[in-house]
Each structure stands twice: as structure tokens, then as C-alpha cells.
Amino acid sequence: MSIPKPTQNCHFASSEGRKCHQEDRVTWHNGLEEVKVGAVAVFDGHFGSIASEMASHIFLYKFMRKLNNSIEQSSNLKELLKSSLVTTIIDIDAEFSEARTQLLLIFLLCDFNFLLFNDLHYSKRHRYTGSTAVVALIYNNHVLVANVGDSKAFLCSQKKISQEAGEGAASLAGLRAEELTRDHNVHRLDERARIEASEGVLKFYHDFVPLLMSHFPMTRAIGDVMWKRYGVIANPEMTDWRSLTSKDEFLVVASDGIFESLAPQKVCDFLNEVEDHSDPSLLAQQLIQKAYLEGSSDNLSVVLVPLGSGDLL
């Protein structure tokens, strides 16, 4: 895995956590070529890192190619950025699915014995592999988020100022989490309806997300070719462009391992309690460590984008 280097306004930390392998992948860019837009993306792989690795390597290239092909004909850059992001994620899913099918044909034609004697390994690592995708774009002091799966993006913003004892005693009450994504699982009635309409069978467990066909916890993902017949899709759910203000301190984009032990509000509380924000890269590492110590059992990846300076890109 090639690890992106920290930049002035984008800081990354990642850990295998309690798992044996790291399946998360992260990519970003501060100011994409001719368009002054920042992009942050987290891909959380499952049943291997094949899908997350592919998505992280080709996302920026495919996204910028779509922009460059259409920017001269577009009169609304925000709408172009949004539509390009949607089609990029859908295209990555289609390309991965096609590549998986071609790989299967190669194995069948070239080495049937390999497929025969490694069927269990193959089925887990190739037929069922997939990835979440959460992508945040920052353009002209606005943020837009696309989400597929159960990774998250949210803002940590200053709460209202309290002035109980007069103007001289005014103080900030901390940071408030504003979630920009919603998890894709069958707890959501709209997602469940699509799965059931595709004859997907759900297995319900106490205190756990219901599983599709007793195996899969999400209703949207890149890859996961075997689950697409049961209504799993890769179409991203989009926010509207949200204006950033001086009260917005951090944009947080992270894989779901963080949220096994820390809710978004707990993340904002942690960021608020840390006195020294001079090294956001260290802050990201400390957040990873806190999630681990609080009991997370998954891979852990987070990108912190400090917003308070006003110089976003």
C-alpha cells in the first residue's frame, strides 16, 4: 500500500487494529489541477483489499478525466463536480465487476486445478470482496459528500456561545458533530425495501445489523458482485453542497472501525478536549489510538481536515 503524505490541510492516520490485515485505503488531493477543489476519499475493503486498493488507485484519475472532458461545456461547476463524482464511483464499481469476471475466466481457462483446490480462498477473496466509499469534495468554502456503505464523514463545529455571566464570561461549549452520511443497511426502511424487492433474505440478530443472506451487513458497496442480484448497489448517496463557516473546525472522514467504539460526537468531544492542535497528523494518530483502546476490533483509518484556518486548499 502506498501511504499518502500529510499535507498542510489534510492529515491521515491508519492502523490494522486488532485485524491481521489492513483493508482500508485512503486517497486525497489538495487542489485538483485547473479546478481548485480538494478531494478526500476513504475506501474500507472487506473480504480482502482488492476492491479498496483498486478504487483508491484509480479514483482521482477517473474523477479528473470526467471533469476535464466536460468543464468547458459546463456553466455550473458545482453540478459538474457532483455529477462527475456520482458517475466516477459507479464506473469504478462496473470496472471492478468486469475485472473480477475476466479474472475468473483466466483461472478457468489457464488453471482449473488452481480453482478447484483453492475454491474456498477464491470465493472469499474474489467473489465476495468489496469496499465502502466515502468521498468529500471541498470547493469555494463548500463541502459535498458521496457515500456508499458504512464509512462516515462529518463536521465538528463550534457550539453556540454561552453568555450566562455577561459578555466577559462568554465561552465555547465544545464541538458539535454534524453527520454528512447515513449508513447503508436494512435498518433504513428505504434500503430494506430495495433488498426485499430483489428477493434478498435477511437474517436478524440481537444487537447487530441484520445480514443479507446471513452474511452481508450493507446494502450498498463497490464490488460484492455476488450480492448485486439481491439489491446491493454502488450508487452513492449524495449530500447537497453545504456552506462552511468560521464555526466549522474539522472535517472528519473515516472508516467504520472508528465508530465501533466512538460515535461521531465522541470524536468531536475528543478533538475539542485536546489542547494542542498544532500537529493535526499527531491528532489523527491519537484518535486512532483512542478508538483502539476503547475496544474497536476493526481496521482504523481517519482523515482530519482542519477548517478553522480558512485556508482549505
From TrEMBL:
SMART domains (alphabetical): PP2Cc (SM00332)
InterPro entries per UniProt: PP2C (IPR015655), PPM-type-like_dom_sf (IPR036457), PPM-type_phosphatase-like_dom (IPR001932)
An annotated Gene Ontology molecular function: protein serine/threonine phosphatase activity
Alphabetical list of Gene3D superfamilies matching this protein: PPM-type phosphatase domain
Superkingdom of origin: Eukaryota
Domain PPM-type phosphatase: 9-307
SUPFAM superfamilies: PP2C-like (SSF81606)
PROSITE patterns (UniProt xref): PPM_2
PANTHER family for the chain: PROTEIN PHOSPHATASE (PTHR47992)
The protein's name: PPM-type phosphatase domain-containing protein
Organism of origin: Anisodus tanguticus
